């Protein structure tokens, strides 16, 4: 058995220690060592995107990164999206626009979209469509996923009363709430 290394992983704002073999993927460390099973295992070779997490804000396929490489990075998984048992605006939008059926691919799409919208808050529909083409969904079809992300982007940009209300409020309102 190869030597194991004690590493610290900064995940969703908390530091976790894990004793891992050098070959262990970030995906396996998240699921098996940290118990964060919201990140799903699909193809395990970088094609489907079901394992997408944010590493220093960038959407990354966790099956293609070794856990030891992720030390000293800020990692966000789908478990970081909700707060106090409430869905995030993006999660609500997926629900409201029927952006999922079986839900297997959904954590990956959510994290892909979260990272994308942080980098490109003014993305138009075509840019969103291009971004989500990185991940595979076998059952929903992409139309409603694009609808959900597009609606979230519009809500987050919304600053005037004339814009359509975001279900559950937009992120600016959330931050202003004590
Ligand atoms: S499980 Fe990582 S890309 Fe498919
Ligand atoms: S919702 Fe079933 S694979 Fe995407």
UniProtKB/TrEMBL annotation:
Keywords: 2Fe-2S, Iron, Iron-sulfur, Metal-binding, Oxidoreductase
Keyword Iron listed: yes
Organism expressing this protein natively: Saccharopolyspora elongata
Entry's Gene Ontology molecular function annotations: 2 iron, 2 sulfur cluster binding; metal ion binding; oxidoreductase activity
Domain 2Fe-2S ferredoxin-type: 5-81
InterPro entries: 2Fe-2S-bd (IPR002888), 2Fe-2S-bd_dom_sf (IPR036884), 2Fe-2S_ferredoxin-like_sf (IPR036010), 2Fe-2S_ferredoxin-type (IPR001041), 2Fe2S_fd_BS (IPR006058), Beta-grasp_dom_sf (IPR012675), Diverse_Oxidoreductases (IPR051452)
Pathway(s) of this molecule: Alkaloid degradation; nicotine degradation
Domain of life, source organism: Bacteria
Protein name, per record: (2Fe-2S)-binding protein
């Amino acid at each position: 058995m190869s030597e194991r290394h004690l590493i610290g992983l900064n995940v969703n704002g908390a530091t976790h220690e894990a004793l891992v073999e050098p070959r262990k993927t970030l995906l396996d460390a998240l699921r098996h060592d940290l118990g964060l099973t919201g990140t799903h295992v699909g193809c395990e070779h970088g094609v489907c995107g079901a394992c997408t997490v944010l590493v220093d804000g960038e959407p990354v396929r966790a099956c293609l990164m070794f856990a030891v490489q992720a030390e000293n990075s800020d990692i966000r998984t789908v478990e970081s999206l909700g707060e106090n048992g409430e869905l995030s605006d993006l999660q609500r939008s997926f629900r409201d626009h029927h952006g999922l059926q079986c839900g297997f691919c959904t954590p990956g799409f959510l994290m892909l979209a979260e990272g994308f919208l942080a980098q490109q808050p003014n993305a138009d529909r075509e840019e969103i469509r291009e971004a989500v083409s990185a991940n595979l969904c076998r059952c929903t079809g992409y139309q409603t996923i694009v609808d959900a992300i597009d609606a979230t982007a519009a809500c987050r940009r919304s600053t005037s009363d004339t814009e359509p209300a975001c279900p559950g409020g937009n992120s600016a309102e959330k931050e202003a709430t004590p």
